[in-house]
Backbone:
């Protein structure tokens, strides 16, 4: 049930965004992702499943690497035209001042402006349309309108330049960059070949027949013993402290330069 629910979720996201899963990879992380997502590989027909080093810590590492972001916004329904340029410029100047007061003395920041806007008559907004820096005069407003149409077309596939554009929410965001977590490169294997630490009997898998005693014998590996370039043939299990990876029958895994495990179907091109 878990595998089918995940496969359905991937399909829903892919279809909504017009994406062909066969052109993309799945990233498996957390404690259960590496155990279940390789089975989704067959159901979704995506290119491969990638399991990063320390998948059980993947979200925590992302949090530690996340940039600090401060944002302010103001709602104001204003037509994007020359008559409202001065008022829109005033709003962004006030937002800039409010944001810099929040930041205190911080100077190493990136400032980004954006807006939510819609075609006149629409009841929904197109969010986070980029807004130019500096004074917003008539030329800048024209740039904002063009940016709206570009963003709208990229997201919906349609373009309606004959319809006026109305701004709804104006935003300013400050980004303080944070040092990123870097994975060390994994050495290649030298001398000793890859040897499984043991075997384990697997039952109740989708690729087994329905006989009462259906089972598979999977080789078991310790992830800490893997080296760059190692190839594991399923069925196999890779154990580590905070996660378990299952490589199914008809699949193989290759260990990458940074210790990532890339799982593909044996018949994949």
Residues:
């Amino acid at each position: 049930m878990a595998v089918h629910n995940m496969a359905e979720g991937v399909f829903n996201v892919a279809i909504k965004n017009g994406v062909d899963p066969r052109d993309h990879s799945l990233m498996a992380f957390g404690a259960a992702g590496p155990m279940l997502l390789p089975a989704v590989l067959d159901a979704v027909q995506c290119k491969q499943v990638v399991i990063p080093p320390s998948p059980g810590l993947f979200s925590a590492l992302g949090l530690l690497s996340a940039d600090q972001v401060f944002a302010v916004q103001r709602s104001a329904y204003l037509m994007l035209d020359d008559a409202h340029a001065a008022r829109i410029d005033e709003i962004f100047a006030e937002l800039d001042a409010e944001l810099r007061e929040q930041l205190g003395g911080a100077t190493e920041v990136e400032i980004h402006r954006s807006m939510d806007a819609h075609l006149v008559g629409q009841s929904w907004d197109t969010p986070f349309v980029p807004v130019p820096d500096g004074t917003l005069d008539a030329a800048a407003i024209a740039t904002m309108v063009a940016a709206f149409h570009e963003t709208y077309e990229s997201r919906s596939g349609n373009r309606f330049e004959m319809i006026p554009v109305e701004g709804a929410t104006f935003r300013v965001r400050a980004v303080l960059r944070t040092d990123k977590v870097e994975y060390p490169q994994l050495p290649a294997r030298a001398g000793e070949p890859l040897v499984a630490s043991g075997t384990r009997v697997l039952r109740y898998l989708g690729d087994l027949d329905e006989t009462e005693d259906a089972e598979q014998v999977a080789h078991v590996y310790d992830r800490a013993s893997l080296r760059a370039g190692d190839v594991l043939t399923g069925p196999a299990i890779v154990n580590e402290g905070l996660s378990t990876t299952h490589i199914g029958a008809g699949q193989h895994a290759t260990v990458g330069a940074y210790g990532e495990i890339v799982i593909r179907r044996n018949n994949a091109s």
Notes: The first strand starts at residue 25 and ends at 27. The chain has a mean pLDDT of 90.
